[in-house]
TrEMBL record:
MF (Gene Ontology): serine-type endopeptidase activity
Signal peptide: 1-30
Pfam families on file: fn3_6 (PF17766), Inhibitor_I9 (PF05922), Peptidase_S8 (PF00082)
Family: Belongs to the peptidase S8 family.
Protein name in UniProt: Uncharacterized protein
Gene Ontology process terms (BP): proteolysis
C-alpha cells in the first residue's frame, strides 16, 4: 500500500523541480531523513534484512552502491524491519511504492512530556507503593527499558547494592561513549545505549551542543523518570530542604536498561525506532516512554511510537506512555490501543508559600522558592511598571525587558500568566528580579498548582485569589505585602486532582478507544536528577512524563508476581482496579475550576497499587485482536500482511473498533441501539461468581447479558454483551460505568456514550 505523508501536489512539484534542478546542480541537496517502515521482521535474518535494505537503496540511486551507502543511516532488523535514509521527496515517493513497504514518513521530532522542564527543580515523593504480603525479590527478574534522555548511573537511586547478577537471557549492552564506558553499568543499570543519527540529521550542531554523546543524562529528565519507576530507597532525599524524607521508586529492585533517544531539543522518530528495535531484541519486559507526538496525532503506521510499541507488544513487552501536556479536550496523544496511556494528577503534598497582605489577609500560592521577604514592601500590578514602548497590558505579563526599573525597584509585582505563553514562569521571576523587584505574585488561570523554583520570593495563585489581591491593591492607599519561603504541606485536599496540563480525551484518531487509560501522580514529583544540570541530585518536576513511570513501576510489580501475564492482562488489572474517587471518597475533580472529572480526564481512574495484583478477572487482547482492530478501522489484508508478515486475514474483523476486548467501553455514535461484546478471563479463585452492576450514562438504557457470571476454573473465558439503548435525547458525551462484583473483587469499566440524533 505505501502510505506517504506528503501531499500529492507537493510530490508533483518536487518531481518537476527535481528534474529541472538536477540539470543545474548534480546534487540531491534537498534530501531529508525518512523512515522507511516495512512491518514485522518475519523469519528473516538481520543480516539478510540489511542486505535487502541496501539493495532497495541501490535501485533508488540508479545502481550506485556508493550513493546508496551514503544515504543509508540506520537499519531496523531485530524487532521489526525497515531503515532510515536521506532521500529526496521524489525518492521517498518511489520507495513508498516498492514491494514490502508499509509507510514512508519524515523524521519527526517528539517532545518530552514535562510541562516546562526548565521550570522545575526537585525533590521526591509520593505515597509509597509497598504492597503488603508480597516480597520484592522477584523484581530483580523484571527489566524496564526507558526511552528517554539517558541516566546518571552514579545517583544513589541507581545503586546496585545487594542486587544479584543479571540472568543469562539478557542480551543488552553497555555502550561506551562520552563519560560512559562498559563498566559504568552495574547490576541496577544493566544496559545503556544511545541513538544520535536522527537528531544529528535535523539539528544544526553549531546551535545545539550535546553535553554527553553517550547514554549519560545531561538533562535530568531520564534519571527522574527512571527513579520514579525503579529508583532505590534514598534517605534524606530533598529539594533545598523541601519534601525531606526517604523516597524510592515503585519497583526498587527492578532492573533498568537505558535507550537514550532524546537530546537537548527533543526526540526524533529515526532514533526512537532504533531504540524500540534494540529493546525488543535485548529482552526488556517493559518499555516506558514519557514523550509523544504533538496533537493531533497522525496515523499509527506513520508514527514511530505507535509502530515501535506495536511490535514490542507483539513480542509480549508492556509499553507505558504519557498522554501529553496540552490539557485541552481532544488533545490526548499516544492513542494506540496496545499502549497504556497515562494522565497526571496531584498528590496530597503541596509546595506553597504564604502571601501576607497589609490588611493582614493571608493567602497561599504554589511555590518552590527558598527565598523569603523579611519585611513588607509596596505591591503594584506589573502593568503600572510598564517600560518604554511596552503597553501596560504587555507589561502585566512581565515579558522580558517590559518593566521600568525606576517603578519596579523595591516593589512586589503582580504578574499575569496565560497557558499559551511561551515565556516560562521561572523566567518571569528573573525579569522581575532584574528590574529590582523584591517579590512576585503570578496569576495563572490555567495551571496554578505547578510549583516553580523562583529566583526571588514568589508564588502562583489562581484567578480568584488573583483578583482578591488586585482588588486589595485597588482599594488601599499604600498597599503592601510580604511573601514567605515555600514549605511542604501534607494532607492537602482534594487529592488526587487531575492536573490542568494533563491532555484529555476524546481520542481524535479512534473515538471507540478511550484515552487516557489511567491517571497517576504527575504534579510536583521529587526524584533523581542529573548533577550536570543545575548541580542538583534531586529535583521536583511536573508533567504526564512523571505520571507515566508511576504506572511503569506498578507494571513491574505485577510482572514480578505474575511473570506469565500478557501485556493486555497487566493493563486490564491496572485499569479495572483504578478508582474514580479521591482520598475523601468524593468524585475526583479536575483543575483549575474543580469541576467533576470524567473518563476523558482519567480514563478508568486513579491507579490503586494495593489491588492490581489480584484483579480477579481480566480483559485480554492477543496480537490477533489488534490485527482485527486494524481491519475494523480500515486496514485491508494487503496492508495488514505488510505489517505482520504472516497469513492473518481480516475474516475475524470486528463490526466496529468498539468490539476490541478493551477494559473500557466507548460507543461513539449511538443513534438508537448498539451492542458490544466483551470476554472476561478468570485469574482469581477457580470457582467464583460475579454480578453486573451498571451505572448507566444519563439518557441511556444499559443492559448486560448475562447479569451473573459463574466461573469454574482458572483462566476460563466467558463472554457477555452490553446493550445500549437511547432512552432520552442525548447530546454529546455521557459517562457511566459497569462493574463485575463479588465480595472480594470489583472489576470496573468506564462506559462512555456519544449520542447522535437520528430522527428530527
Ligand atoms: C569508566 O568510567 C568510569 C566512570 O563511569 C571511570 O571511573 C572509569 O575509570 C572508566 N574506566 C575506563 C577503563 O575508562
Ligand atoms: C531575610 O533574613 C535572613 C536571615 O537574617 C537573610 O538570610 C535573608 O537574606 C533575608 N532576606 C532578604 C530578602 O533580605
Ligand atoms: C521609567 O519611569 C520613570 C519614572 O516614571 C521615567 O522617568 C522613565 O522615563 C521611565 N523609563 C522608561 C525606560 O520607560
Ligand atoms: C482596579 O481599578 C481599575 C480602575 O481604577 C479597574 O479598571 C480594575 O478593573 C480594578 N481591578 C480590580 C481587580 O478591582
Ligand atoms: C502462509 O500461507 C502459505 C500458503 O498457504 C504458506 O506457504 C506460508 O508458509 C504461510 N506463511 C506463514 C507465515 O504462516
Ligand atoms: C466470545 O466472543 C468472541 C468474539 O467476540 C467469539 O469469537 C467467541 O467464540 C465467543 N465465545 C463464546 C464462548 O461464545
Ligand atoms: C429504559 O429503562 C427503563 C427502566 O428499566 C424502562 O422503563 C424504559 O422503558 C426504558 N426505555 C427504553 C427507551 O427502552
Amino acid at each position: 500500500m505505501g502510505s506517504f505523508c506528503i501531499s500529492k501536489r507537493s510530490v508533483f512539484y518536487s518531481i518537476f523541480l527535481w528534474v529541472f534542478l538536477a540539470q543545474i546542480f548534480h546534487s540531491a541537496s534537498s534530501s531529508k531523513l525518512y523512515v522507511v517502515y516495512m512491518g514485522s521482521r518475519g523469519n528473516d535474518e538481520p543480516d539478510e534484512i540489511l542486505r535487502q535494505n541496501h539493495e532497495m537503496l541501490t535501485i533508488i540511486h540508479k545502481g550506485s552502491v556508493e550513493q546508496a551507502m551514503e544515504s543509508h543511516v540506520h537499519s531496523y532488523r531485530h524487532g521489526f524491519r525497515g531503515f532510515a535514509a536521506k532521500l529526496t521527496e521524489e525518492q521517498a515517493s518511489r520507495i513508498s511504492k516498492m514491494a514490502g513497504v508499509v509507510s514512508v514518513f519524515p523524521n519527526t521530532k517528539r517532545s518530552l512530556h514535562t510541562t516546562h522542564s526548565w521550570d522545575f527543580m526537585g525533590l521526591n515523593d509520593e505515597e509509597t507503593m509497598e504492597i503488603p504480603g508480597y516480597s520484592t525479590k522477584n523484581q530483580v527478574n523484571v527489566i524496564i527499558g526507558f526511552i528517554d534522555t539517558g541516566i546518571w548511573p552514579e545517583s544513589p537511586s541507581f545503586s546496585d547494592a545487594d542486587m544479584p547478577p543479571v540472568s543469562v537471557g539478557w542480551k543488552g549492552q553497555c555502550q561506551s561513549g562520552e563519560a560512559f564506558n562498559a563498566s559504568t553499568c552495574n547490576r541496577k543499570v544493566i544496559g545503556a545505549r544511545y541513538y544520535y543519527s536522527g537528531y544529528a540529521a535535523e539539528e544544526d550542531p553549531e546551535k545545539s551542543t550535546v553535553s554527553f554523546k553517550s547514554a549519560r543524562d545531561s538533562s535530568g529528565h531520564g534519571s527522574h523518570t527512571a527513579s520514579i519507576a525503579a529508583g532505590r530507597y534514598v534517605q534524606n532525599m530533598n529539594y533545598r530542604g523541601l519534601a525531606t524524607g526517604g523516597a524510592r521508586g515503585g519497583a526498587p529492585m527492578a532492573r533498568i536498561a537505558v535507550y537514550k533517544s532524546c537530546w537537548n531539543s527533543g526526540c526524533y522518530d529515526v532514533d526512537l525506532l532504533a531504540a524500540f528495535d534494540d529493546a525488543i531484541r535485548d529482552g526488556v519486559h517493559i518499555v516506558s516512554l514519557s514523550l509523544g507526538p504533538d496533537a493531533p496525532q497522525g496515523d499509527y503506521f506513520s508514527d514511530a511510537i505507535s509502530v515501535g510499541s506495536f511490535h514490542a507488544v507483539s513480542h509480549g513487552i508492556v509499553v507505558v506512555a504519557s498522554v501529553g501536556n496540552e490539557g485541552t479536550a481532544g488533545s490526548a496523544t499516544n492513542l494506540a490501543p496496545w499502549l497504556i496511556t497515562v494522565a497526571a494528577t496531584s498528590t496530597d503534598r503541596d509546595f506553597t508559600a504564604d502571601i501576607i497582605l497589609g490588611n493582614r489577609a493571608r493567602v497561599t500560592g504554589a511555590s518552590l522558592s527558598p527565598f523569603q521577604m523579611n519585611a513588607s514592601a509596596r505591591i503594584i500590578p506589573a502593568s503600572e511598571a510598564f517600560a518604554g514602548y511596552f503597553t501596560p497590558y504587555q507589561s502585566s505579563y512581565c515579558l522580558d525587558s517590559s518593566l521600568n526599573r525606576t517603578k519596579a525597584r523595591g516593589r512586589v509585582l503582580v504578574c499575569q500568566h496565560s497557558g499559551s505563553s511561551t515565556q516560562s514562569k521561572l523566567a518571569k521571576s528573573v525579569v522581575v528580579k532584574e528590574a529590582g523587584g523584591l517579590g512576585m505574585i503570578l496569576i495563572d488561570e490555567s495551571d496554578k498548582d505547578v510549583a516553580i523554583p523562583f529566583v526571588i520570593p514568589a508564588a502562583i495563585v489562581g484567578k480568584i485569589l488573583g483578583s482578591k489581591i488586585l482588588s486589595y491593591i485597588n482599594h488601599t492607599r499604600k498597599p503592601v505585602s510580604r511573601i514567605l519561603s515555600a514549605k511542604t504541606v501534607l494532607g492537602s485536599q482534594p487529592a488526587p486532582q487531575i492536573a490542568a496540563f494533563s491532555s484529555k480525551g476524546p481520542n481524535e484518531l479512534n473515538p471507540e478507544i478511550l484515552k487516557p487509560d489511567v491517571a497517576a501522580p504527575g504534579l510536583n514529583i521529587l526524584a533523581a536528577w542529573s548533577p550536570a544540570n543545575a548541580e542538583l541530585n534531586f529535583k521536583i518536576l511536573s508533567g504526564t512524563s512523571m505520571a507515566c513511570p508511576h504506572v511503569t513501576g506498578i507494571v513491574a510489580l505485577i510482572k514480578a508476581v505474575h511473570p506469565s501475564w500478557s501485556p493486555s492482562a497487566i493493563k486490564s488489572a491496572i485499569m479495572t482496579t483504578a478508582t474514580v474517587l479521591d482520598k475523601q471518597h468524593k468524585p475526583i475533580t479536575a483543575d483549575p475550576q474543580g469541576r467533576r472529572g470524567n473518563a476523558f480526564d482519567y480514563g478508568s481512574g486513579f491507579i490503586n497499587p494495593t489491588k492490581v495484583l489480584n484483579p480477579g478477572l481480566v480483559y485480554e487482547a492477543k496480537p490477533a485482536d489488534y490485527k482485527a482492530f486494524l481491519c475494523s478501522i480500515g486496514y485491508n489484508e494487503r496492508s495488514l500482511h505488510l505489517i505482520t508478515r504472516d497469513n492473518s486475514t481480516c475474516d475475524q474483523s470486528f463490526a466496529t473498533a468498539s468490539d476490541l476486548n478493551y477494559p473500557s467501553i466507548v460507543v461513539s455514535n449511538l443513534k438508537d441501539t448498539f451492542s458490544v461484546i466483551r470476554t472476561l478471563t478468570n485469574v482469581g479463585s477457580p470457582r467464583s461468581i460475579y454480578k453486573a452492576v451498571v451505572f448507566a450514562p444519563e439518557g441511556i438504557n444499559v443492559t448486560v447479558v448475562p447479569q451473573r457470571i459463574v466461573f469454574d476454573s482458572y483462566r476460563q473465558k466467558i463472554n457477555f454483551t452490553v446493550n445500549f439503548k437511547v432512552a432520552a435525547p442525548v447530546i454529546g458525551y455521557v459517562f457511566g460505568s459497569l462493574s463485575w462484583r463479588n465480595k472480594i473483587s470489583w472489576i470496573t469499566s468506564p462506559l462512555v456514550v456519544r449520542g447522535v440524533h437520528s430522527r428530527m
